[in-house]
């Protein structure tokens, strides 16, 4: 299972009203580190489908949300829970580091 995309149009339903934690990967097609972290996030999603939902948001296609959540560098990942940002992770990291950052959700 790979992370599905969310957009400005589906944001409310996909992220803010979601049950349980949602990790949103703010990315862009031209971003090399974003492409490096994507398969790692897919692995985390497939290994913990009942604990966390991983969604991708293209910042070029959804600049309103990138601005609202103050995304100034990508990749940036934010974990939302009950509509609120609980955790922010900036930059590409290896799987073990991401799992450590997400331990409160997938541990």
UniProtKB/TrEMBL annotation:
Coiled coil (residue ranges): none
Gene3D superfamilies: Glutaredoxin
Keyword hit for rRNA-binding: no
InterPro entries, alphabetized: Thioredoxin (IPR005746), Thioredoxin-like_sf (IPR036249), Thioredoxin_CS (IPR017937), Thioredoxin_domain (IPR013766)
Domain (Thioredoxin) ranges: 1-107
Family designation: Belongs to the thioredoxin family.
PANTHER family per the UniProt record, alphabetical: GEO12009P1
Protein's name according to its UniProt entry: Thioredoxin
Organism name: Microbacterium insulae
Lineage, opening ranks: Bacteria, Bacillati, Actinomycetota, Actinomycetes, Micrococcales
Gene expressing this chain: trxA
């Amino acid at each position: 299972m790979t992370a599905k995309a969310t957009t400005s149009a589906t944001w409310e339903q996909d992220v803010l009203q979601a049950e349980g934690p949602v990790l949103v990967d703010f990315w862009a097609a031209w971003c090399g580190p974003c492409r490096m972290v994507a398969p790692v996030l897919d692995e985390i999603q497939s290994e913990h489908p009942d604990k966390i939902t991983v969604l991708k948001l293209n910042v070029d296609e959804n600049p309103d949300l990138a601005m609202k959540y103050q995304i100034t560098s990508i990749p940036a990942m934010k974990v939302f829970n009950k509509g609120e940002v609980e955790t922010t992770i900036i930059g590409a990291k290896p799987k073990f580091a991401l799992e450590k950052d997400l331990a409160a959700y997938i541990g």
